[in-house]
Amino acid sequence: MIFDLDGTLFQTETLLLPAYHATFEQLRAEGLYEGETPPEQAILSCLGMLLEHIWQNVMPESDVQAHRRADELLLKFQEEGLARGEGQLYDGVAEALRKLREQGVRLFIASNGLEAYVKGVIRLKGLEPLFEPDGLYSAGEHQTRSKVDLVRMLLDKHGISSAWMVGDRSSDVEAGHANGLFVVGCDYAGFRKAGELDQADVRIASFEQLVELLP
């Protein structure tokens, strides 16, 4: 099984939103942004996108220098929050992942996030031993232009011919089906737009339901 991270395993807003506000405070202090911080919904609605696309949506009037600095600051503040124990997994995630491993399922991550963020969340939330060695794939590390490419790279490198893609956004559905995978849509985060999971093979209303789907 290949999992998205934000909105699938991790309640992103519990870590993201404090870091988001701190990022804009620092951008203003450095003269890279003026005005009020964009509404929280601006970034929440972009979760699952590549970072460059997120900032193009959140602050389209700012230049590339400001966008790249926002990358650095958001990661910094999120890492500091993780180190303080901030951020929550969705209910039942750790236990369900353990059950999947006990049943012999190999577990991977495919996320459009930055490498340090993706690996930091998995490590600091105690999930690292449950995933395959070198099984945490991020667009930040591999510089892929889409999740389709990231998942294809993962499948090729690990010699996988059959897998499930589990995620909450249309990019997860696309990545799964483009690579011939069974797609499980996670219908509990609330970040997506209407219809994003319509093409998923099955939808779940809580993470624990994933274990029940296994034959």
TrEMBL record:
Q: Which UniProt keywords apply?
A: Hydrolase
Q: Which GO terms describe its biological process?
A: DNA repair
The name this protein carries in UniProt is: HAD family hydrolase
Q: Which domain of life is it from?
A: Bacteria
Q: Name one GO cellular component term.
A: cytosol
**Signal peptide positions on this chain:** none
The keyword Endoplasmic reticulum is annotated on this UniProt entry = no
Matching entries from Pfam families are given as:
HAD_2
Q: Which InterPro entries match?
A: HAD-like_hydrolase_sf, HAD-like_sf, HAD_2, HAD_sf, PGP-like_dom2
- GO molecular function ontology, one term from the record: phosphoglycolate phosphatase activity
